[in-house]
Write a structure and sequence with these properties.
Length: about 200
């Protein structure tokens, strides 16, 4: 918690977005998460309208329906509609060089894989979680903006926008369509902010 007080309100907000995306993409939504989403409120900005759409979709979705949608999108019988991994988006195959590069950066940044996680570390949810941790200092101290940008450019910005576009357009996506919209818009905001800060 001490690290959290050292970061700006804007950075806490950024970390919150990454954490929300990580939570939505790491596992099927629980009833508690659906309840939280139903209460979200957005403004008239494009991102705000995405948030309103997510709240509306959550209000029309039961936990059972959400579970099935998550399964169809990301798990499937053999394979889900989408493969949310950097290696797949960047090379067309799983467990390729992008994953090895990520593991090298994780070691350098003292980021350890959670024992209870079986997914490769280049899953979009894990990367969003890592980015939130770099912002807040979960791995020691908050990362400098240049370090955050390097991580974003190398491991997220080079493929996640396409993944979120695919999620937005996915055949099975109802609850997750606005998640795709929010992710796509947030990635664009982050990329633009890093450019402006350079």
């Amino acid at each position: 918690m001490a690290a959290q007080s050292q970061i700006s309100e804007e950075d806490q907000l950024r970390a919150g977005w990454y954490a929300l995306l990580a939570q939505l993409l790491s596992r099927e939504p629980s009833e508690a998460l659906l309840q939280m989403m139903r209460g979200l409120q957005g403004d008239e900005s494009e991102l705000g309208r995405g948030i309103k759409a997510l709240a509306a979709a959550a209000r029309g979705t039961s936990a059972e329906t959400a579970k099935q949608e998550y399964f169809d999108l990301f798990v499937g019988l053999g394979q889900g509609e989408l493969l949310p991994y950097a290696s797949y988006y960047l090379t067309g195959f799983l467990n390729e060089k992008p994953l090895a590069r990520l593991r090298g950066d994780m070691a350098r940044l003292h980021i350890a894989r959670a024992d209870d996680v079986s997914e490769p570390e280049d899953h979009i949810a894990a990367l969003c979680e890592m980015m939130a941790g770099l912002i807040t200092g979960s791995f020691g101290r908050p990362a400098e903006l240049a370090e955050q940008r390097a991580f974003f450019d190398t491991h997220i910005g080079c493929w996640a926008p396409r993944f979120f576009e695919d999620l937005q357009a996915a055949q099975s996506a109802v609850l997750y369509m606005p998640v795709g919209t929010i992710g796509r818009l947030f990635m664009a905001i982050e990329a633009q902010a890093f450019e402006m800060a350079a």
